[in-house]
Write a sequence for this structure.
C-alpha cells in the first residue's frame, strides 16, 4: 500500500483541528440553510404574487444572485461593508449573510416552481369541495409543494455545505483551510500527506452531506 | 406584461449600477467618512483637493480605516495578518499554534507593544484588501515590496531578501549565466519571476517551461536541461533536500525585499515598526529568527544572504 501520509493526522491535535474546521463549515452552512428556508418561502410566495413590482424586484434579486459568483459576494460583504459603511463584520457573519442571501433566492425560486407546478384543477377541486382559500393552501397545496420541494432543496443544501470551502478567502479557518495548513506544516517530513489529508476531507464532506440525502429519501417515501 | 418587462429592465439597470458603484472604492468610502463625522468629511474634502489619483485613496482623512498605535495599545489586541499554510514563513503546527519566520517576528511585536496578538489567516490574493479596509493592523505574510503594492499600502523596513537562484547538478555546476552554452536549456516554471527575468534579460538562453513544481523537478532529475531557475528560496531548499545538486547562482536579478506592511497613512504604527526593526538589530534578532525557523529548510550557508538585519540591505 502506498504511503498516504495519514500519520500526519495523528500528530498533536491535528484530527481535532480538522473536525473543528468541519464544525465551522457546518455551523455556517446549517445556520444559512435555516435562514434560507424561512426567507426562501417568503421570496417564493412573493414571486408567485400577482403584484408586478414585487415580481420584478424578486426577479432582479434572483438574477443578481445567479450572476454574481459567491466569491465576489463574499468579498463584497466582508470588505465592501467595511469600506462603504465602516462596519467591521467578522468572517463568519459575512459568510452567513452571503450564504443566506444566496440560499433565500434559490430556495425562493424552488418554492415558486413547486407552487406553480400544482395543477389548476387542484385549486378548482378544492373550491368545489367548499374549502376556503386558507384551507386550500393548508390541506391541498402546501403538502404537495413540500413534497416536490424536498429533492430540490437537498441539492441546494448540500451545495451550500460544499461551497463553504470558499470562506477561507475571507479569513475563516474551516475544514479545507485546516487541511492545507496540515499539509504545508508537514511538507518536509511527509510530502505525500496531501493525498491522505484530502482523502480524509473528502470523507468528512461525504459524512456531512450523506445523512441529508438519507433524510430526504426517507421524507419523500414517508410523505408519498 | 409589457409594462412588467419595462419595469424589470429599469430595476435591473439600477441593480447593476449599484453593484458597480459598490466595486469602485473611492466614492463609497468618501461618502462614509463624510457621514461618520463632520471633521472627517472636511479632511476628506481637503485630501480630495490635493489627491491626484482619486482611485487610490481609501485611508485619507482622520483615520477612519486604520487604528493608530495608541488605539491598538488601548484596545490590548493587535490584528496581524499572516499566512497559515506557507511553511516555513507562516504556518500552523500540529498543536494549532502559528509558527514560522514571519510569526516569530510578529510574536516579538506583540510582546514589545504589550498587547495580545490576534492572528488572521490571509491568502496571497487578499493581503492588500485586508490593509485597505483596516481589518488587520499589520500584514506579515512574506509580503514582497513592489512599486505597485506600495501605492496601496505602506511598507516598513525590510527583514528579508528574495532574489532568483539557479540550481544545477554537481557534475556541472553553473555559477554564472555565461557558462550556459548554446545548445543548453534552462528549466523554469511558467508564470514565475524567473521566466520573465530570463526572457527579458537573457533572451539567448533557451527556456524549458513547466507548469508545476513537480514536473520541473522531474525534468531536472532526468537531465533534460542543465539548470533550473526559480526563486532562490525554492532552489536552495531543493538543493538541500536533494543531494547531488548545487545552487551555483544563489542570487540573480533584482534584489527584492520582504517587509511588514500597514494601512496607507498609518504613520504612528509604521514609525514604531521601523524603530523596532532598527533596535532589534542590536541583538541580531532576525539572525536568531532564521536559526529558529528557516535553518532546517535553507541551511546555515544562506543566513547572511537571506536575512536583512535592521532594515539595511546590502547593495
Amino acid at each position: 500500500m502506498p504511503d498516504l501520509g495519514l500519520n500526519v493526522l495523528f500528530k498533536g491535535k491535528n484530527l481535532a483541528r480538522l473536525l473543528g474546521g468541519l464544525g465551522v463549515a457546518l455551523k455556517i452552512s446549517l445556520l444559512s440553510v435555516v435562514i434560507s428556508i424561512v426567507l426562501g418561502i417568503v421570496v417564493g410566495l412573493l414571486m408567485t404574487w400577482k403584484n408586478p413590482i414585487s415580481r420584478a424586484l424578486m426577479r432582479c434579486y434572483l438574477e443578481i444572485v445567479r450572476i454574481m459568483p459567491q466569491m465576489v459576494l463574499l468579498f463584497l460583504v466582508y470588505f465592501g461593508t467595511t469600506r462603504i459603511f465602516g462596519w467591521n463584520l467578522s468572517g463568519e457573519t459575512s459568510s452567513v449573510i452571503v450564504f443566506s442571501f444566496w440560499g433565500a433566492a434559490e430556495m425562493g425560486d424552488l418554492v415558486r416552481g413547486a407552487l406553480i407546478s400544482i395543477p389548476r384543477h387542484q385549486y378548482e377541486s378544492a373550491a368545489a369541495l367548499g374549502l376556503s382559500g386558507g384551507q386550500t393552501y393548508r390541506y391541498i397545496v402546501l403538502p404537495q409543494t413540500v413534497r416536490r420541494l424536498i429533492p430540490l432543496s437537498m441539492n441546494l443544501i448540500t451545495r451550500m455545505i460544499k461551497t463553504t470551502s470558499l470562506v477561507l478567502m475571507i479569513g475563516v479557518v474551516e475544514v479545507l483551510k485546516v487541511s492545507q495548513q496540515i499539509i504545508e506544516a508537514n511538507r518536509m517530513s511527509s510530502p505525500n500527506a496531501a493525498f491522505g489529508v484530502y482523502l480524509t476531507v473528502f470523507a468528512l464532506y461525504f459524512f456531512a452531506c450523506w445523512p441529508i440525502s438519507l433524510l430526504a429519501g426517507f421524507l419523500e417515501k414517508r410523505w408519498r | 406584461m409589457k409594462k412588467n418587462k419595462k419595469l424589470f429592465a429599469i430595476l435591473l439597470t439600477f441593480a447593476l449600477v449599484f453593484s458597480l458603484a459598490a466595486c469602485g472604492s473611492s466614492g463609497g468610502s468618501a461618502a462614509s467618512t463624510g457621514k461618520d463625522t463632520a471633521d472627517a468629511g472636511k479632511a476628506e474634502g481637503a485630501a480630495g483637493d490635493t489627491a491626484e489619483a482619486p482611485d487610490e485613496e481609501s485611508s485619507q482623512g482622520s483615520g477612519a480605516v486604520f487604528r493608530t498605535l495608541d488605539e491598538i495599545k488601548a484596545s490590548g489586541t493587535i490584528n496581524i495578518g499572516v499566512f497559515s499554510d506557507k511553511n516555513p514563513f507562516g504556518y500552523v503546527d500540529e498543536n494549532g499554534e502559528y509558527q514560522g519566520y514571519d510569526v516569530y517576528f510578529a510574536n516579538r511585536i506583540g510582546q514589545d507593544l504589550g498587547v495580545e496578538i490576534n492572528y488572521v489567516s490571509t491568502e496571497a490574493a487578499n493581503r492588500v484588501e485586508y490593509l485597505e479596509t483596516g481589518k488587520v493592523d499589520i500584514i506579515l505574510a512574506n509580503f514582497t515590496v513592489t512599486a505597485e503594492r506600495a501605492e496601496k499600502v505602506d511598507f516598513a523596513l525590510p527583514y528579508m531578501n528574495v532574489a532568483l537562484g539557479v540550481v544545477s547538478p554537481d557534475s556541472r555546476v553553473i555559477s554564472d549565466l555565461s557558462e550556459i552554452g548554446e545548445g543548453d536549456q534552462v528549466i523554469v516554471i511558467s508564470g514565475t519571476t524567473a521566466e520573465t527575468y530570463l526572457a527579458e534579460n537573457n533572451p539567448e538562453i533557451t527556456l524549458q517551461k513547466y507548469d508545476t513544481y513537480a514536473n520541473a523537478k522531474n525534468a531536472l532529475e532526468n537531465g533534460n536541461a542543465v539548470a533550473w531557475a526559480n526563486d532562490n528560496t525554492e532552489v536552495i531548499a531543493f538543493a538541500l533536500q536533494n543531494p547531488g545538486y548545487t545552487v551555483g547562482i544563489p542570487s540573480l536579478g533584482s534584489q527584492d525585499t520582504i517587509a511588514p506592511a500597514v494601512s496607507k497613512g498609518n504613520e504612528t504604527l509604521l514609525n514604531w515598526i521601523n524603530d523596532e526593526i532598527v533596535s532589534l538589530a542590536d541583538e541580531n534578532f532576525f539572525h536568531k529568527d532564521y536559526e529558529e525557523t528557516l535553518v532546517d529548510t535553507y541551511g546555515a550557508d544562506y543566513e547572511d544572504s537571506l536575512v536583512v538585519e535592521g532594515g539595511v540591505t546590502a547593495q
About this structure: Helices of chain A lie at 14-48, 52-67, 70-84, 91-116, 120-128, 133-163, 175-185, 193-222. Chain A has a mean pLDDT of 89. Chain A is about 75% helix and 0% strand. Residues 20 and 124 of chain A are 53 Å apart (CA to CA).
